[in-house]
Design brief:
195 residues, alpha/beta, Rossmann fold, five-stranded parallel beta sheet, four-stranded antiparallel beta sheet, 5 helices, 30% helix, 23% strand, globular
Length: 195
Amino acid sequence: MLSLRELKLPRGSVRVLTQDFGPGVHVIVGPNGIGKTSLLECIAGALPPAAGAVRFEGRDITGGSARVVLAPNAPPPLPWIRAGLLLEFIVSLYPATRRDTAYARDVLERFGLALVIDSQLGTLSAGTARKLLLAAALIAAPPVLLFDEPTNEIDAPSIAAFRELVAEAAAQRVVLITTHHAGDLESLRPAIFPL
């Protein structure tokens, strides 16, 4: 169980949040600027909240935890880094939960990333870079997966692959997704959480 307790975001217009999220897919929707990205960053420990706490299984993880991974809506500003090296680095942060090599290969194939894994991040299209971040989170596979606008800029076959992979992961994990395109995720039968 992921719990937000009187969480106040440092950015956006969201009031104090107290909410519990169990295993499954939870879609967070709301207008631009309300705080969807800030919420995910607070849960991941990348942005300190103005007040309140984030807990997982009763333990405070407000400062970050290996129990949570965030696939952000943009890659880090490291255009020179090789895509495969970024993927390996992210996954290396989750030694206790990372999926095996066969699963990783399958995810890369399904997202069409196998041929670009040796390319520099700066040479990838926005959609391909986003798919790399989605793949990294799915392969890292901690108990809480956070995806910020995951279907933006990616092709229809990759959206279908993402839905299938998330459906599998959500059977045992808490999955939070921010989006403006909830229709892309309808087949997951998510719990909708409006901000």
